[in-house]
Specification:
Blueprint: H1 2-22, E1 37-49, E2 60-71, E3 76-87, E4 90-102, E5 107-109, E6 118-120, E7 127-143, E8 149-161, E9 166-178, E10 182-194
């Protein structure tokens, strides 16, 4: 059994090595325009509560936000955002500051069923990891809670460059809000970013 397992592992490694020489990407290398300038990101996210979830505003949350800011360089984006958050118990209006740092790593994932593997390369790739953090205040709109809350969230995500002006992003992180009670959520977010041309 061990010999069969080793045989398959050797075949997979050889396949990955051979595939690196044969790959011809269908689309050229793209990242979002790295010049300084205005950028907007529109996102939806959903979160599940951690720890105590029996009280209102702690079991689940769904957000739709719009973020507008400035790309400082190819790595940093600073922005302000607002939107609407729906909880089990009511709705809140978030106002927040957002900071994103794009890592200088690019990669693509090839189809594993076509004898492929993960390739880490500095070029001819379109997916870029990034780190994010944002925080601000949550203002009551409707529901049983009339308290203004503070919040902070941090996580990691991936940008897919559709073109020099448009990116799609997917991220996940920890979201914590503070009021009379502290509530924490694991949130997954999806968004589209746009940077107008000059």
């Amino acid at each position: 059994m061990k010999k069969i397992l080793i045989f398959f592992l050797v075949i997979m490694v050889m396949n990955c090595i051979a595939a690196q020489k044969l790959v011809r990407p269908a689309k050229p290398y793209q990242v979002l325009d790295s010049r300084p300038g205005y950028v907007t990101i529109n996102e939806i996210s959903s979160g599940m509560g951690l720890s105590v979830i029996s009280v209102p505003y702690s079991k689940m949350v769904f957000d739709a936000v719009t973020i507008h800011g400035y790309q400082i360089n190819k790595n940093f984006i600073t922005a302000l955002g607002t939107g609407f958050s729906v909880y089990n118990g009511g709705g809140l209006l978030p106002l927040f500051a957002d900071i994103r740092y794009r890592l200088n790593i690019h990669f693509r994932i090839k189809n594993i069923f076509q004898g492929s593997c993960l390739q880490i390369k500095p070029a001819r790739t379109t997916i870029t990891p990034y780190l994010y953090t944002y925080g601000g205040a949550l203002f009551p709109v409707y529901g049983i809670d009339t308290e203004t809350k503070l919040f902070i969230s941090s996580g990691v995500g991936f940008n897919y460059a559709v073109s020099k002006k448009v990116t799609a992003n997917l991220g996940a992180g920890l979201f914590s809000q503070f009021g009379t009670l502290r509530d924490s959520f694991i949130k997954i977010k999806f968004g589209i970013g746009f940077k107008p041309g000059r």
